[in-house]
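Database export, one record per block. Field names are fixed; values are copied verbatim from the stored entry.
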Amino acid sequence: MRNAGLEEAQAGIKIAERNINNLRYADDTTLMAESEEQLKRLLMKVKEESEKVGIKLKIQETKIMASSPITSWQIDGETVETVTDFFLVSKITADGDCSHEIKRLLGRKAMTSLDSILKSRDITLPTKVHRGYGFSSGHVWM
């Protein structure tokens, strides 16, 4: 991925006078472009460069998200799934809504503020688990 030539590619979005066309986090890569055609070219470049070193791009794990309607993509006879959001450290949505992320951070902050109570040896376990705490992240803490 690092040698796929994406740094030299003209596709991408301009941020602070720099052309950004990919984000890498752990084993995930996010490609970015201003148009559907640019994004297709980037994806095909990654696919071709990966194949040169013996890595096959898994089309069934590849997803497309766009802020405007796009056509269905076919690569090697497989349809690339279109999604309305994805998770890369935080939830990213096509419409730019970040309310879910704010709720998640508020829930985390609330649990952090209860940390000293929950870890206190002076408070009995039955008192600590008297009520369960639920937060928007989907986890239940007791």
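Remark 1: The CA atoms of residues 4 and 49 lie 5 Å apart.
Remark 2: The chain has three helices and eleven strands.
End of record.
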